[in-house]
Amino acid sequence: MLIVLGGLPATGRTTLARLLAARAGAVRLRIDTIEQALVRAGVAGHPVGPPGYVVGYALAEEQLAPCAHPDGGRARAAAARGGRR
User: Fold this and answer.
1) Predicted confidence (pLDDT) per residue in 43-65, tens digit
2) 39 in Cβ contact with 46 (< 8 Å)
3) Is residue 28 part of a domain?
4) pTM for the full predicted model
5) Could you give the CA distance from residue 80 to residue 27 in angstroms, rounded to a whole number?
6) 53-82: b or e for each residue (b if 16 or more CB lie within 10 Å)?
């Protein structure tokens, strides 16, 4: 399941996301955290723009992939390892 929160600054998005993630035992991805890491690593400057979202989408896809495959993502993981277990 993917839940995306949006809204104006200081409206409680982060608080709500933390509560939802904790209650559901879910992973929370935050674009601000991704962008800050890209800037610290020297990969991007402020504003980061699209690269932050590209990383965020890739992380979300990785977290959701086991849910989208009948084998729980095992075949995809094996392929990523070159077929090794």
Assistant:
1) 999 899 999 999 999 999 998 88
2) yes
3) yes
4) 0.68
5) 22
6) eebbeeeeeeeeeeeeeeeebeeeeeeeee
